[in-house]
Specification:
Layout: E1 23-27, H1 31-43, E2 47-51, H2 54-63, E3 68-72, H3 80-90, E4 95-100, H4 105-113, E5 118-121, H5 126-145, H6 151-156, H7 167-179, E6 186-189, H8 196-205, E7 214-218, H9 224-232, E8 233-234, E9 246-247, H10 249-252, E10 257-261, H11 268-280, E11 282-283, E12 292-293, E13 297-302, H12 306-311, H13 317-323, E14 326-329, H14 340-355, E15 360-361, H15 363-370, H16 377-391, E16 396-397, H17 419-437, H18 442-449, H19 453-463
Parallel strand pairs: 1-2, 1-3, 3-4, 4-5, 6-13, 6-14, 7-10, 10-13, 15-16
Antiparallel strand pairs: 8-9, 11-12
Helix pairs in contact: 2-3, 14-16, 17-18, 17-19
Length: about 475
Amino acid sequence: MTTDEKVDAAPAGTARTTPRGPRILIVDDQRNMRTTTALVLRQQGYDVAEAESGEAALSWLLAEPFDVVLTDLKMAPLDGLAVLRGALEISPSTQVIVMTGYGTVESAVSAMQNGAHDYISKPFKETELLVRVQRALEKRRLLVDVGLFSDEFRERYKLDALVGRSAPMRDLLTRLVRVAPTDVTVLITGESGTGKELIARAIHANSKRATRPFMPVNCAAISESLLESELFGHVKGAFTGAVKLRQGLLEEASGGTFFFDEIGETTPAFQAKLLRVIQEHEIRRVGDNASIPVDVRVIAATNQDLRVAISEKRFREDLFYRLNVVPMMAPPLRERREDIPSLAQHFITRFNQRNGTRRTLTQGALQKMVGHEYPGNVRELENVVEQAAALSRADEIEAEDVFLEQPTEKTPASGIRTLAQEVDDAEKQAISMSLERNEGALERVARELSVSSTTLWRKMKRLGLRKE
């Protein structure tokens, strides 16, 4: 066998052919249906992989990229909707076609509403299958050809502030461009300093509300009573100091986007009022009984785990599901280290423009930055770059000019472990114990740990865990 003829390694329980064309993953627990469909596609020159279950499909998706996923809906324990969610979470540009039997068209329509490209009813004709796959590939090709990370694309979609070409950023920006034109609520999660407000602003800039106000409010910085007055407004005499009627920020933002930062810091009482805004599209000023209609798109962000807050009765479950229609995660900097040089160059260019200087970063300075853990994420990196630029004695910033408070390089003899290592160990123990309690049933493990099935599989793969 020559090098060109070598077959790639595949996850257990799947079959692979020699790579020849666009990559397609077929997911079906019925062996005859799966192999027959694969044969038809291979005869057309497609590179086809087969997965006999939703679990096997997620293994494939986490390991390798695919252009199209063709999945059955009725499978256990992970069904086609779980495969759909996993495919879009791992690679939002992948096109998913769901296969349905008679009487399940409603489920297929629901799948399309959740991001599937198309559906096809069983039994289907060979020509019908090939036409639908070709259409999915054309859509995928358009997404790629548009040049997601080209300067023109970034300028067109106002993404200049979201710097990075890593896999997590590619997935984030692909999802952002998809969801921005819609009017659904978005919940952005992520650690402090990861750029959640920048993501919210980019969503607004690419929405049909872009010409209307973008109104950000930091819920953690305002007391509950003041927050209510600021958002809803008040009538004259509503409380001491209310000498005249005041319009609230939600009214001022009408037609635009309202961004609730640190939504996890609000009280359940305030959350009930916010739920009414989202459900009924109306508010009541403090001290008034009349309802006022408002038209705003709601985007919220938090650095907390809201599912934990729900279990502790600190956050309303009904509000969580209203906010979490489209979840987006701002990745921490330690998971996108390849973006650090680009971010550092971005910050040094901005520093030079503001201060009329010509500072440059040497390779030594960049390498030192890449080796840091950045508990403060992108915000910390920005501070590091600006401090080095301000204190450097020459235009060329050397490694010794870069001050890092918490270097990650420790000698083995020191016995000091990084925060990331401690977190990995804790996650590994929690997942292992849950797997044992639930006898390897991944859906139950995911529910118990309050993570998606895809996130669970990704963590297990990174930590070297098997469901056994």
